[in-house]
Amino acid sequence: MDLDDVVPVAEHVTRQSRVIDAPPSVVWDELHRLKLSSLPVTLVLSAVRALPVLLSGRARGGLDRTFLDVVPIPVLSSEPPTAVVFGGVLQAWRWSGGEQPPSLDAAGVREFAEPGWVKVGMEFRLAPSLGGTRLSCETRVAATDPATGRRFLRYWWLVRPGSSAIRWEVLAAVALRAED
Questions:
Q1: Rounded distance between C-alpha atoms, residue 146 and residue 115, angstroms
Q2: pLDDT above 90 as % of the chain
Q3: What percent of the chain has pLDDT over 70?
Q4: What are 135-138's contacts with CB under 8 Å, separation 24+?
Q5: Which domains occur in the chain, in start order?
C-alpha cells in the first residue's frame, strides 16, 4: 500500500527525506522506537496545538509513547522494513480537534466525501540508497468540499512550517540513533 491508495489527489503535500548510514532494518526499528519525549521541537509544537484538546479532556497517552503512536490518524498498512502508511479524516482546524472521525480503511478514506472534513494520508517509506537507507515522509491533505478547503487553508498556513519541522526532527532523530 502507498499514499495513492489513500489520498491519490491532494491540495496540500509536504515531503521530507534523508539518507541514513544504516541498513533499512535498523532505520525501521529506530523509527518505531522513537519516543515523543526525545523530540523537543515536536513536544513544544504539539503542546501548543494540543492545549485546547487537553482542556477538553480528549487527550490520550503521554510522553513515553512513540512518535508513531501519537500520529492523529491510524496506521492503515505496515510493511517492515519498507513502509508504514497512515490515513484518516480530521477536522484539525477546530480548536478541540473536531468531531470523532469515523474509522476507515484505505478505500474508505479515498472515497470519503462527507462535507466538513479533510482526508489525510501520511507515509514513512524506507528504500536502499547509496550510503545507506533513504527515509522519507510524505503527507497529503484533501478537503471534502470547497468551504472546508478554505477553512483548512487558513489553518495550514499557520501550522505547515511547524508540521514540516516535526517531520525533519523525526528524520534527524532516527538518523542519530540508527547511525550510532
A1: 9
A2: 78
A3: 91
A4: 135/17, 135/18, 135/19, 135/20, 135/27, 135/31, 135/171, 135/174, 135/175, 136/15, 136/16, 136/17, 136/18, 137/14, 137/15, 137/16, 137/17, 137/167, 137/170, 137/171, 138/3, 138/13, 138/14, 138/15
A5: 3-178 (3.30.530)
